[in-house]
Amino acid sequence: MTWNEHIVVAYDVQDDRAREAFASRLMDLGLQRVQLSVFEASLPKNRVRDVWDLSEEFCREAGRSVRVFLVCSTCYRRARSFGETGKVDDAEYRIV
Q1: Which candidate among 20, 31, 56, 93 keeps its CA 20 to 30 Å from the CA of 87?
Q2: How far is CA 74 from CA 5, 33, 37, 84, 96, in A?
Q3: Which CATH number fits domain 4-87: 3.40.1260.10, 1.20.1560.10, 3.10.20.30, 3.30.70.240?
Q4: Per-residue pLDDT at 3
Q5: Strand-by-strand arrangement of the 64-71 sheet
């Protein structure tokens, strides 16, 4: 049985083209956009490692910052959304 990890990725990237390329790669790995620069998902551990590797590689250039959070199941279930959440792709959970 494979256990999934709840993951949240937040980033700040100055270059528009690089930002969209990074977002596209995150979606390819199975993450869903919940805010303009925030993605989340429940992923197998090997996919979490892929996100870490992608983030590390991406941040080798100046002007890029990525934070990757692993969220325990209890905290993930307790997350709540507020405000206008309909402006990004549909996602079951929002972490604010």
Answers
A1: 56
A2: 12, 21, 24, 24, 15
A3: 3.30.70.240
A4: 83
A5: 32-35, 38-44, 4-13, 64-71
What's the token pair of residue 43?
């992923």
Angstrom distance (rounded) from CA 45 to CA 84: 31
Cβ–Cβ under 8 Å, residues 88 and 36: yes
**Tokens coding 96:** 């604010």
The amino acid sitting at 49 is R
For 58-68, what is each residue's pLDDT tens digit?
Answer: 999 999 999 99
Which one-letter amino acid corresponds to residue 33?
A: R
